[in-house]
Amino acid sequence: MVTMLPPKAKLMLALREHRMHHVLWHTVRDNWEAQDEGEPVFSDSEKQRIRDMGWEPLRPSLDKDRVPKENNKSGEDFLFMHRQMILHVNTLLSEIGDTSYPEVVGWARVPPPNDPDYPVPPVWNSAPDYIKSRKTDNYYSDIMMQRENYFTTSENLSGMTLGQLGSQLEYRIHNPMHLRWASDPGEERPLVFPSDADAIDTKWDNPSYDYLADPYSSHVNYIFWKLHGWIDDRINDWMRANKITGEVPWSVEWDKNIMPQHGLIHEPHLMAKMDDRTNDIINRMEEVVKIVNKTNLITPFSVIDDGIT
Hints:
Elements: H1 7-13, H2 16-31, E1 35-36, E2 39-40, H3 44-52, H4 74-96, H5 129-132, H6 137-151, H7 154-157, H8 162-180, H9 222-241, H10 269-272, H11 276-291
Antiparallel strand pairs: 1-2
């Protein structure tokens, strides 16, 4: 049975500050070390400006050749940040008190083709190839199902670090799931906005814009929470496989008042009290958005490792 997010939760997630945080979190860490035709995506001066705004990723997720970095603990950042997002939403859901949707619950299994509750949306004419190729039945049977089996098998999980788990989940199954369940957005937000604009157009802040293949909007989509609930459950599998009980043994520490690596309050305080500090964080994100308005950016969710596990 499919249950949609309560309207109040969707409205909160559609707020501009949440959209900017999610798109910047993915975009900056994916592009920090990347090069395009031998030239860095971000120049030294751009990196310094991003650093000054508090958005330098301490653990970039991809190297200069856009290959996932499995051993620098950026995978832990991926798992921790999205677990915090789930905790944030669960706090809001408890306040809303909708008995039909009391908390985020992930998929028990990745839905197969023709699933009655979560069917794969059809391909649309303007869909890029990296989306089209992930929607086929063969992609599910040949790659996605194999990956699901791999990441739910104790023998495999016991042989990797938590950082390796997070990195492999992100680029081997998480990104393809975002693309596989993306629907035709109708009008899609331009990844690079017009040069005469100085910010992302506010029309993309409408709650109806919940395109799953764009990190500016993906978390507004109810599928996001089924998908990330599944991803989050793999942490628990990893702990059981490694006979770990109690709290998750994160090997890096984050300031609990900010999101990992980047400065945004993650507690409901952000929605309840727009104080000077919060407004400063939002203004800084707007400045970083301007810096990353570049044609050679890596599109978040498009980097996928489909090699043999």
